[in-house]
From TrEMBL:
One of its GO terms (biological process) is transmembrane transport. It catalyses: glutathione(out) + ATP + H2O = glutathione(in) + ADP + phosphate + H(+). InterPro entries: AAA+_ATPase (IPR003593), ABC_transp_ATP-bind (IPR050319), ABC_transporter-like_ATP-bd (IPR003439), ABC_transporter-like_CS (IPR017871), Oligopep_ABC_C (IPR013563), P-loop_NTPase (IPR027417). One of its GO terms (cellular component) is plasma membrane. NCBIfam families: oligo_HPY. This is Glutathione import ATP-binding protein GsiA. It is an enzyme of class 7 (translocase). The complex is composed of two ATP-binding proteins (GsiA), two transmembrane proteins (GsiC and GsiD) and a solute-binding protein (GsiB). GO terms for molecular function: ATP binding; ATP hydrolysis activity. Its main location: membrane. Residues 15-261 form the ABC transporter domain. Its EC number is 7.4.2.10. Part of the ABC transporter complex GsiABCD involved in glutathione import. Responsible for energy coupling to the transport system.
Length: 336
């Protein structure tokens, strides 16, 4: 198994999010006004090529909406996404799929139960007309071997496999086109604990083998600590802290990050994130608190916090987000 690489500020960027936002209009009829939900709020983030960026936060914080924007499944309301330095705003989904692929949480629902495994894994090659049928079959065999599945798996159906084997199939399908960036959306949270470590180690090995970059979305901090180079902590649609794994795990600055780490959550598959010990629950995202969105739950909130929203600031440079010091931690708190 390989270990996470050291954070490298000089590496070219695989992914850059520039002031990305996504809002949804909810409800509204003759009697009631519609409400606006800001699922992603002015998020700027840089992910160097070959690294793993962990994205953590409670359920409903906007992580999965962010993933959907990156995969072209929903357009952003504002801001830009750059992959390898190129904006993807006008790219169609087929073109995007050459560069970016997802691995989802649930290998049971993400695989077509009526297709054989070789058909499932080879589908992206057929869609993009890459190689002859013989070359495609050879690539499928090679990919199945790389993810640790026996040759006979090619003739099986998803229903004949265990959860861990199905997730290996999903990984093979995601990587067969050699994408630049992989969005891993809770890829182990539906698996038995005994299988989780095997899948995480496989993902790390394949990252090194293919030079991949991962955006790894999870609410399980133990998982993220195992493989992330950098971490971004999300709360109510905003990044509240970002830094290297060491910075976040050894010296978290934001009170929300501190609460997440103190709770050391490892929820059971299928369950929501339990109480993280902050007293009040998450606010209604259609009525976000004024000032710092975290202030109703913050143990060190001051009067200023309910009035003035803190900027995500590079602590060492004292500069605002999106500046050129990616190895320095950024924190959105007046009193970090
Ligand atoms: Fe807490 Fe205030 Fe910092 Fe927000 S700005 S995290 S409320 S101390």
């Amino acid at each position: 198994m390989s270990s996470p690489t050291a954070a490298n500020s000089t590496a070219p960027l695989a992914l850059e999010l520039c002031a990305l936002s996504k809002t949804f209009k909810l409800g509204g009829d003759m009697l009631r006004k519609s409400r606006t939900l800001t699922a992603v709020n002015n998020v700027s983030l840089r992910v160097p090529r070959g690294q793993v960026m962990g994205l953590v936060g409670e359920s409903g914080c906007g992580k999965s909406t962010l993933a959907k924007i990156l995969l072209g499944l929903t357009p952003p309301s504002a801001g830009d996404v750059l992959i390898n330095g190129k904006a993807i705003a006008n790219a169609n989904q087929k073109a995007l799929a050459r560069h970016i692929q997802p691995i989802f949480q649930d290998p049971y629902s993400s695989l077509n139960p009526r297709q054989r495994i070789d058909q499932i894994v080879g589908l992206p090659l057929r869609i993009h007309a890459i190689g002859t049928a013989k070359e495609q079959a050879a690539k499928v065999d090679e990919m199945l071997e790389l993810v640790g599945l026996p040759k006979r798996a090619a003739r099986q159906y998803p229903g004949q496999m265990s959860g861990g084997q199905r997730q290996r199939v999903a990984i093979a399908r995601a990587l067969i086109m050699r994408p630049d960036l992989v969005i891993c959306d809770e890829p182990t949270s539906a698996l038995d604990v005994s299988v989780q470590a095997q899948i995480l180690n496989l993902l790390l090995d394949l990252k090194d083998e293919f030079g991949l970059t991962y955006l790894f979305i999870s609410h399980d901090l133990a998982v993220v600590e195992h493989l992330a180079d950098r971490l971004a902590v999300m709360y109510l649609g905003q990044i509240v802290e970002e830094g290297t794994r060491e910075q976040i795990f050894t010296a978290p600055r934001h009170p929300y990050t501190q609460a997440l780490l103190a709770s050391a959550l490892t929820p059971e598959p299928g369950l929501g994130v339990p109480d993280i010990g902050l007293g009040a629950g998450q606010p209604d995202p259609t009525r976000p608190p004024t000032g710092c969105a975290f202030h109703p739950r913050c143990p060190i909130a001051q009067p200023q916090c309910s009035q003035q929203p803190p900027k995500l600031t590079n602590l060492v440079q004292g500069a605002s987000q999106g500046t050129t010091q990616p190895n320095q931690p950024r924190v959105a708190c007046h009193f970090a």
